[in-house]
Amino acid sequence: MPKNGEFRKTPPQGRALPGQALLPWEEIKRSKKRVEVDGEVLEALTILCVRASLFHKALEIMAMMEERGMKP
User: Fold this and answer.
1) Which of the ends of the chain has fewer CB neighbours closer than 10 A, N or C?
2) Res 62 pLDDT > 90
3) What is the maximum span of the chain, computed from C-alpha positions, in angstroms?
């Protein structure tokens, strides 16, 4: 809620830098060789995407998990 007509200049907690937090996912996706990633890492990235309203990226990660035989 703005006080004295001033608005918050920073994003709310948890949405500050979703782009930077997803850099590991971009590296995994761009890698020419198959990068071995733990299911917990992919699950954490999926949760991050959902919280940041990046649903297409969350679905991409879940598809990769299914390809690798992990339970999404």
Assistant:
1) N
2) yes
3) 55
SS3 label, residue 3: strand
Phi, psi at 2, each rounded to 5°: -70, 140
CB 14 within 8 A of CB 51: yes
| Ranges of each domain in the chain | 18-67
What is the C-alpha separation between 12 and 18, in angstroms, rounded? Answer: 12
Query: Which residues are within 8 A (CB) of 37 and not within 5 positions of it... i.e. 6 or more apart?
Result: 28
Paired tokens of 35: 């990068």
For 4-58, the pLDDT digits (tens) are 666 555 555 555 556 777 888 888 888 878 888 888 989 999 998 888 888 999 9
Residue corresponding to tokens 């997803």? 22
The amino acid present at 4, given as its one-letter code, is: N
